[in-house]
Amino acid sequence: MAQTTETPPADTPDGRAPRTFRDPRTPRMHRAWFVAAVTFVTIIGAAAFASLPGLLIEPLHEEFDWSRGTIGFAVSVNLALYGLTAPFAAALMDRFGIRRIVAVALTVIALGSVLTVWMTAAWQLVLLWGVLVGLGSGSMALAFAATVTNRWFVARRGLVTGILTAAGASGQLVFLPLLSWLVEHHGWRPAAVTVALAALAVVPFVWLLLRDHPADVGLAPYGGEYAEKPAPVTGAARRAVTVLFKAARTGPFWLLAGTFAICGASTNGLVKTHFVPAAHDHGMPVTAAAGLLAVIGVFDVVGTIASGWFTDRFEARRLLAVYYALRGISLLFLPMLLAPSVHPPMLFFIVFYGLDWVATVPPTIALCREHYGEDSAIVFGWVLASHQVGAAAVAFAGGVARDVFGSYDLVWYASGALCAAAALMALVIRRPRTMTPSPAGA
């Protein structure tokens, strides 16, 4: 908040301290917080599509007689493209601006979702939900949140990262109960249309309220000094690949990518995709299982924001090790907790798992920032790609395991073991000696 000092008038008694007043031209709240709020709402609107895949497995299996492995393959394509698109989207935001890329991405999500209403073959599910929605959602990935945070904030970056990461969970909280009710009472098609409308509804907010850089409105980033807006960076694809090859020569990149691949495998790939059908296998109603996922979303908001606060105060790699170890332990107990009804031990698992769901994101982004400086958003995009490749592998493998063994138990145990490995990998990451930013056009 800018303040100015008023000189005491001549008749003011000597010794009176000069008073201060607010410059009327200075906003009460920094514009960065409004940009963060628009980003939060945008991610919530885009998160509707992430709530749907786990609800579609049983309806599509029953209507079209497609195997769970086939449906899981479409979900895995979606998840893989979600990750692989992210680094290129981050580079495209440097070239064309955040607003344009995000508005186009939301439109592509809406198109891919609404066209599934008329599909009749499995390849159409792969093309529409896998490819189109995957490409659109990849441009709305966490690299978007990282880009906004890096440009608009110097202070409170960990906290803002946690809040924006929690937006995905908030979207799940908002849409999952509604979508599960629609699927159970009206079929999966109205649910797909709802996802499309939610994505389109956010586009005006993005176009009218989001700004690409603090310099666009004559401000310094929150907690930082004013800097001119960089010139648009050409060769977005080349830059994304160049940054990848540069980062791939360093050990921390592979450790971060490995841990985040396991993070994706144990969250989006496993629980978000297969928890509802797994619970249904044990006699639990779909709406009840979807409600439990929504509760995960509630506590994910709390856990992720808290993780951002912790990341501003504690060593990020140690936080990661704790998060992965606790997640692995909880997954080992899950097969014993699945039952026809919701009971206290299952609720404890849901709360515990929700607090840990994407708490890994703030410390992972912080480590990318520490090691890779100005390239950190693109590096995190590639790390996120590994997250989604891990998610895609388990989304497909989980469906195949269910078809072959008639149960998801093996997948739960394997994911628990992988989380233990991720905890060890996080501890191996060394602190950087110096920051290594590269020129914007590198």
UniProtKB/TrEMBL annotation:
- Which cellular compartments is it found in? Cell membrane
Protein's name according to its UniProt entry: MFS transporter
- Disordered, as annotated region: 1-24
Q: Mainly localized where?
A: membrane
Q: Does the keyword Ubl conjugation apply?
A: no
Write out the transmembrane intervals: 32-57, 69-89, 101-121, 127-146, 158-179, 191-210, 253-271, 291-310, 322-340, 346-367, 379-398, 410-429
Here the segments flagged for biased composition (Basic and acidic residues) are 13-24
Which keywords has UniProt assigned to this entry? Membrane, Transmembrane, Transmembrane helix
Per the record, the domain of life is Bacteria
UniProt topology in membrane: Multi-pass membrane protein
- Domain named Major facilitator superfamily (MFS) profile: which ranges? 34-434
Pfam families tied to this protein: MFS_1
Species lineage, top-down?
A: Bacteria, Bacillati, Actinomycetota, Actinomycetes, Kitasatosporales
Matching InterPro entries, A to Z?
MFS, MFS_dom, MFS_trans_sf, Proton-linked_MCT
